[in-house]
Amino acid sequence: MYKRYAATQVQAAMQDTPVVMIVGPRQCGKTTLARQLINPDWVYITFDDLTQLESARNDPMGFIQHLNSPHAVLDEIQRVPELFLSIKQSVDERREPGRFLLTGSANVLLLPQVADSLAGRLEVALLLPLSECEIRGTIPHFLPTILQGKLPTISEVRLRPLLIEKIIAGGFPEPLSRQSLPRKNAWYQQYLKGLIQKDVKDISHVEHLDAMNQFLQLLALQVGQITNYSELAAKIGLSRQTMARYFNWLERLYLVENLPAWHRNHHKRLIKSPKVHFVDTGLLCALRQMTPSKLADNPNIFGHFLESYVFCELKKQASWLDEPLYFFHYRDKDKIEVDIVLQKAEGQVIGIEIKAGATVNSASFQGLERLRQVAGEDFQMGIVLYDGDHITAFGDQLYAVPIGALWN
User: Fold this and answer.
1) Which of 93, 231, 245, 388 lies deepest, with the highest CB count within 10 Å?
2) Nearest alpha-carbon partner for 328 in 288, 378, 283, 255
């Protein structure tokens, strides 16, 4: 059993908030975490049970009123958005902390009627697939340390074979427990099939499921790169607007994420197109039918996948922070880039560049130097994460740091 660091946030919210909702992709451990946090007197209901699903849809108010306990876990509640208004009324009649613990595999809070109904009564906790810190049982220090302007520590260096293994394994608990790559891939294929055939239908009225599958495959080819919906749409024969809608549905299911471009309004030479990342590199590798030998033999693909892996690890660590942190990438019209830009609420930025190799030189910091010029006084630190041995300074607030620092 893995220790989930999001548990602390959920437990704290349950002490002072009537409704707490754990959101994240299917099969990432939401139900397991919810069950760990409740007492035996709680009612547990899953809306993957068709009987419970139909009962809740037919009479939302009666369903909530006839629960056998004042405390309930309602699992996969995105399947019954009609319940949110009834939950609001129940909470208003009896407002006390920890009344309802909800889980959702789709972001129903994007629906206006849902967001409005529970305003001021709900706290949301994001649970993503397992991070390397959670797999190893180590305390996450990297992100809190650099946000304070300090350097992390390292104990592991030269990780390339291990990195390839971790990129392909991903962070979903079930495939991690399987021994062979074919068995892991079999799980991911069934996972995707279920999402497309059931969950996409729950949140949308998509008619072209085959096109959705094609779109997902094309996105897997775009990972870590600037996304051009017009080009993707032309390859499938659908409109750009349809492609954008498809992406929105996949994003609501926590499968993919747009990484927006960082920019300042007075700098007109900055590119404002987003990049695309998958929420899990194991899922990405299954879509691309990637093996360790294929990754090892294709440095360009490995570089993009490693960038996505680091992005996922940082997003997981950010979800455990008390302070908000915003993620971007940087690219200008000279094609100078920074893979990940972290921006704090106060406006300070930290640039992170990811290098798959074991050698770093001054040219590796070109993007970070440009970001420092544009950000000015808001630039706090620039880091090149690389597969090397030492933390090395490359100028004022610019450092090369081994990738293993992410989970030390």
Assistant:
1) 388
2) 378
State the pairing for strand pair 325-331/100-104: unpaired
% of the chain surpassing 70 pLDDT: 93
Q: Are 283 and 325 in contact (CB under 8 A)?
A: no
Chain segment 288-328, per-residue pLDDT in tens: 999 999 999 999 999 999 999 999 999 999 999 988 999 99
User: Exposed/middle/buried for 69, CB within 10 Å: 0-12, 13-18, 19+?
Assistant: middle
**Cα 1 from Cα 3, distance rounded (Å):** 7
d(CA 277, CA 273): 13
Q: Which amino acid is at 360?
A: V
Taking the model in full, what pTM does it have? 0.92
CB 348 within 8 A of CB 382: no
What is residue 264's predicted lDDT score, i.e. its pLDDT? Answer: 75
> What residue ranges of the chain are covered by domains with CATH 3.40.50.300?
6-126
**CB neighbour burial string for 169-199, b if at least 16 within 10 angstroms, e if fewer:** bbbbbebbeeeebeebbebbeebbeebbeeb
Amino acid in the structure at residue 133 = C
Q: Which two tokens stand for residue 258?
A: 């747009």
Other CB atoms within 10 Å distance of the CB of residue 104: 25
d(CA 406, CA 143): 8
Tokens of 89: 């009324």
Residue 265: burial class (beta carbons within 10 Å; 0-12, 13-18, 19+): exposed
pLDDT at 109 (0 to 100): 66
pLDDT digits (tens, 9 = 90+) for 158-207: 788 889 999 999 999 999 999 899 999 999 999 988 887 777 766 666 66
In CATH, the number for domain 6-126 is: 3.40.50.300
